[in-house]
Amino acid sequence: MSRPVSRVLTLLELLQAGGVRTVAELAGRLGVGERTVRRYVDHLVELDIPVESVRGRYGGYRLAPGHRMPPLMLTDDEALAVLLGLVAGRRTGITAAAGTAGETAAAKVRRVLPERLRHRLDAVLDSLTFTSAPAGSAAPEAAVLLPVADAVRHHRPVAIRYTGGRGGDGERTVYPYGLVAHAGRWYVTGRDLSAGAERTFRLDRISGARVLPGTFEPPPGPGPAERVLTALATAPYRHEVTVRVQGTAEEVRAGLPAAVAIVAAEDGGSGGESWCRVEMRVERLDWVPGVLASLDRPFVVERPDELRGLVADLAGRLLEAARHPPPGD
Question: What sign for the dihedral angle of Cα 93, 99, 105, 111?
Fold first, then answer.
């Protein structure tokens, strides 16, 4: 690469770092005169890169928002961070890139990397394994995510077309309180004006969103993440479970899945022990005894009666397993 071209690209990298760069600063970093800096800026403008001049005592040059994304100059660490972020985001379901956008973005980054760096990054990606299975695809469309996020940030109502879990779709008007990413899915929580109540919506079930005129004031109280977890934990399921567990709310909550269990502290009992009431709504009970046993704390099942039987069955199997000596003894 010729030195003038290399310096023009270095100039672009300096401007991409953000802020206003004075001509004297740029000349010093590039090792050229100020007139040459201005000529390099002209080259970037000819390439349709939105460089604007800032006048005044602290004036200079900066990148302005353009109608298209300009070329990116990435260091080795930045390129590694981008690629690992795309891979991890796709595996966990947290990426907001629908379809193959994440894969094509990663391919574009790799394609322009120097061969030396590309081989090193390929070595990382080829040797990387995950302890969990890939999450199901539930990425929201950019045409949905961006307007909803804009409405959240500026406290604007948003109209969405939503398809419920049991089918049927329709348009809702929502005061969105916040966006929440949980377990590979994206949610928006807020007040559904159509229903006159707070609701939680999955973004992958929204087929269209548009910001409406007007503003609203978010209510005080729990944050968006707590609202979403509470909505998931109180969703209608086949079984309603109530269990009292000895321990503080923080201790008990740490051992239970947040999207399933609601933990509330109770008044101290005799001897000053702390107890909590745990409420869960679950579709199946077979996994609940194991979770309760893993807490390693005294507990009392209040409902349903079927759960008491399952706990007793688990205790019997554990006791029987403990009585058997290992093979060969």
Answer: positive
* Percent of the chain as helix, strand, coil, to the nearest 5: 40, 25, 35
Residue 38 one-letter amino acid: R
The reported pLDDT for the residue numbered 261 is 84
Of 113, 176, 127, 124, nearest to 148 by C-alpha is 176
Question: What is the rounded CA–CA span in Å between residue 315 and residue 321?
Answer: 10
Give the predicted TM-score (pTM) of the model: 0.54
Q: Tell me how crowded residue 262 is: count the other CB atoms within 10 A of its CB.
A: 16
Please compute the mean of the pLDDT values over residues 302-322 and round it to a whole number. Answer: 91
Instruction: Determine the 3-state secondary structure of 42 from DSSP.
Output: helix
Cα–Cα nearest to 286, from 306, 260, 315: 306
Collapse the DSSP code of 19 into the 3-class scheme (helix H, G, I; strand E, B; otherwise coil) and give the result: coil
Query: For 196-211, what is the mean pLDDT?
Result: 89
Q: Which amino acid is located at 11 in the chain? A: L
Cis peptide before 147 (omega within 30 of 0): no
CA distances from 321 to 45, 292, 311, 316, 325 (A): 75, 19, 15, 9, 9
